[in-house]
Write a sequence for this structure.
C-alpha cells in the first residue's frame, strides 16, 4: 500500500542497530527516513495532519544531520529555540504548521552553512543512514559501553530497516519496547 519515496502514499523508515547483545542508547538510530519536500506534502495530505508531517520532517532533518552527517545537534537546537522565541512559545508542541515550515527551512540552512547538501533522494538517504549505523559500532560510546559491560567477541552490528511507527501522530498514537526475556540474563519474563 505505502511506498518508499512516494509523495502520494509515503512510507517512512527507521534505521536501527541490531546488535546481538542489547546496548540501550549506545547505537544511533535514524527515524522518519524517506522525507523530502514532496513526501512531507504527501504525508500531510494522507494523514490529514499537516502539523504531524512537518514535525516529522524537522525531526528527521535534525536526526539525519546529526547522526549521519555529524552536524552538531546544538546547531539545530539553536534554530528551533530561535523560532520558539520569535513566536513567543516555550514548547516544540506549541509551534504551528507555519512555524514548523520555518524550522524546516532553517534546518536546511544549517546543512548549507556546514557546506553540506540535504539529500532529497530517499535512496541516498537510506544508503547513508545504513552506513552511519554500521559506523556507530566503533563509535566512542559503543566501544566504551562494550568495554565496561565486558561484551566481547562480537563482530559488529546488524542494521534493521523497518517501517516507521509514529509516536507523535496525536493523542492515540505511541511507541514502546517490550522484552519477552530479561535483557540481562536471558530468562523468561
Amino acid at each position: 500500500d505505502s511506498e518508499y519515496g512516494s509523495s502520494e502514499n509515503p512510507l517512512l523508515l527507521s534505521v536501527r542497530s541490531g546488535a546481538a547483545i542489547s546496548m540501550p542508547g549506545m547505537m544511533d538510530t535514524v527515524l522518519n527516513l524517506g522525507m523530502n519536500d514532496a513526501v512531507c506534502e504527501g504525508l500531510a495530505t494522507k494523514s490529514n495532519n499537516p502539523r504531524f508531517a512537518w514535525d516529522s520532517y524537522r525531526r528527521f532533518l535534525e536526526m539525519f544531520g546529526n547522526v549521519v552527517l555529524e552536524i552538531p545537534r546544538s546547531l539545530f537546537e539553536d534554530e528551533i529555540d530561535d523560532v520558539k522565541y520569535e513566536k513567543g512559545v516555550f514548547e516544540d508542541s506549541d509551534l504551528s504548521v507555519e512555524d514548523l515550515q520555518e524550522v524546516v527551512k532553517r534546518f536546511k540552512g544549517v546543512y548549507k552553512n556546514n557546506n553540506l547538501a540535504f539529500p532529497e533522494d530517499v535512496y541516498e538517504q537510506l544508503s547513508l543512514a545504513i552506513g552511519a549505523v554500521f559506523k556507530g559500532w566503533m563509535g566512542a560510546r559503543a566501544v566504551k559501553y562494550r568495554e565496561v559491560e565486558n561484551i566481547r567477541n562480537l563482530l559488529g552490528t546488524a542494521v534493521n530497516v523497518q517501517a516507521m511507527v509514529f509516536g507523535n501522530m496525536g493523542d492515540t498514537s505511541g511507541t514502546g519496547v517490550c522484552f519477552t526475556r530479561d535483557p540481562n540474563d536471558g530468562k523468561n519474563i
In short: The chain has one domain: 3-163. Helices lie at 37-47, 50-68, 73-87, 97-113, 122-136, 140-148. The CA atoms of residues 47 and 175 lie 17 Å apart. The chain has six helices and five strands.
